[in-house]
Amino acid sequence: MYLLNQFWSPRKLYEPCGMFTNGHIQLLLLSMFILSILLFKSKKITDNQIIKVTKGFAVFITVLEGIKIYFNFHYGYTWINAWFPMSYCSLFIYALWLSGYGKGKYKKMGEGFIAGVAIVAGGTYLLIPSTALTMYPMWHYLCMYSMLFHTLMVYMGILYIWKKEINLNMSIYKMYSTFFLLFATIAITLNSAFESNLMFLREPSSIPVPLLHTLYNNSKWGYTLLVFSVYLFIPYCATAYVSRAIRREKLNKQLEYDEEVVSVLN
C-alpha cells in the first residue's frame, strides 16, 4: 500500500528519490536490465521491424506522456515547465513520429535525432536524472516513466546506428541541426514569454554542474548560449566519433580475417 500511495502522490508528500542515491541506483540497474533484454531480443531485427518498433514506440510513449500531462493538471501543476513536452530529451517523441511516419526530409530529421544524439542524451539523464527523481519518490509514476523513457532513447539510438546502420555524416547532421534549431527557437520564445525554463535554456535549475550555475550568475545570455551550443554540437559529435571508431575497428578486423583466409587458401 505504501508503494501504491507513492505511485500517484503529489509533490512534497514523500521524500524525493534524488540523484546518486540508493533509489536512483536501483532504478538505473532496472533500466540496464530492460535495455539488455531489448538488445538481446533485437539481435536479428530487420530494417522493416525497426520501422514498426519506431511507430509503436511513438504511440506508446505519447500515451505515457499524456498520462504525465494529466497528472500535472490533476494536481494543479499547470505552469508550462511542468507539463509541456519541450525538454531536450522530449524531442525524442517528435523524432519518433517523424522517423516512423514521416517522409523525405522530415523522416531524415527524426532519424538524425535518434541516431545522432539519443544514446548520449538518454544515457546522460539515466546517470544524472535532474528532473522527476529530484521531486518525487522512487516508485512514483513520473520517476519510473522518466527512467523508462530514457532507456528507450538509448535502445533506439543503438538500433538506428548499428542495426539500421545510419551513417552520421554531415548530411544527417544538417537534418538534426534543423530539427533542433526549430524546437530550440520555440523553447526560447516560450521561455521569454512565460518565464519558463524549457530545455534548461533559461537557467541551470537542478543540474549538478557548478560551472553552469557560476556562468548563469555572471551572464544569463552566456549561459543560454553555452547550453544551446552543447545541445547543437556535443551529443552528435560524440556519437559520430564513437560510431566511426567502432566501424573502423570492425573493418580492420574483417580485413585481417580476409587476409588470413587468403593466406590459408594460397
Key structural traits:
10 helices; mainly alpha; 266 residues; globular
Query: Helix tally?
Result: 10
- Broad structural category: mainly alpha
Specify Rg, calculated over alpha carbons: 20 Å
Order of helices and strands: HHHHHHHHHH
State the end-to-end CA separation: 72 Å
Quick one: how many beta strands? 0
Summarize the biggest pleated sheet: none
Structural domain count:
1
Estimate the mean pLDDT confidence: 94
Specify the helix fraction band.
Answer: over 70%
What spatial form do the alpha-carbon principal axes imply?
globular
Amount of beta strand: under 5%
Low-confidence stretches: none
Structural write-up:
The chain has 266 residues and is mainly α. The protein contains 10 helices and no strands. Helix 3 (47-74) packs antiparallel against helix 7 (141-163), helix 5 (91-101) packs antiparallel against helix 6 (104-127) and helix 6 crosses helix 7 (141-163). The longest helix has 46 residues, at 220-265. It is globular and about 75 Å long.
Briefly summarize what is shown.
This protein is an all-alpha fold and about 270 residues long. The chain has 10 helices and no strands.
